[in-house]
Specification:
This protein is an alpha+beta fold. The protein has one domain (2-93). It has three helices and five strands, in the order E-E-H-H-E-H-E-E. The chain has helices at residues 25-28, 30-40, 57-62; strands at residues 2-3, 10-11, 44-50, 64-67, 88-93. It has a three-stranded antiparallel beta sheet with strand order 4-3-5, with helices on one face. It has a two-stranded antiparallel ribbon with strand order 1-2. A hairpin with a 6-residue loop joins strand 1 and strand 2 (10-11). The chain is flat and about 40 Å long. It starts with a strand and ends in a 5-residue tail after the last strand.
């Protein structure tokens, strides 16, 4: 399930628009907004796509650390998990403390 960052309504992974407010989920889902923030943060060097051990084969194949400009969007296209894509982003920092 995807969550709209504007109205916090959940929509299926396959939805392109929020079922409640009509927002473009490719831009306004919680994961899309989080990815944009990570990409804009100068302390983030790379972004790791974290996948559960019991994730579908498509998601398992995508588990890796990516350069900030090459991170795949969530949900992963082709995910076959019955509960929807459960992958998430984890920042790899250049420095830990300010």
């Amino acid at each position: 399930m995807q969550t709209c960052s504007l109205c916090y309504t959940q929509s299926p992974d396959t939805a392109l628009e929020c079922q409640n407010c009509g927002a473009d989920l490719r831009q306004f889902s919680v994961s899309a907004v989080a990815l944009k923030k990570l990409q804009q943060n100068p302390r983030v060097r790379d972004i790791r796509l974290v996948v559960d051990d019991d994730a579908c084969p498509v998601c398992q194949s995508m588990a890796a650390t990516y350069p900030k400009d090459q991170v795949p969007p969530l949900p992963i296209e082709g995910c076959s998990s019955p509960n929807g894509c459960r992958c998430f982003y984890e920042p790899m920092l250049t420095e830990i403390f300010p």
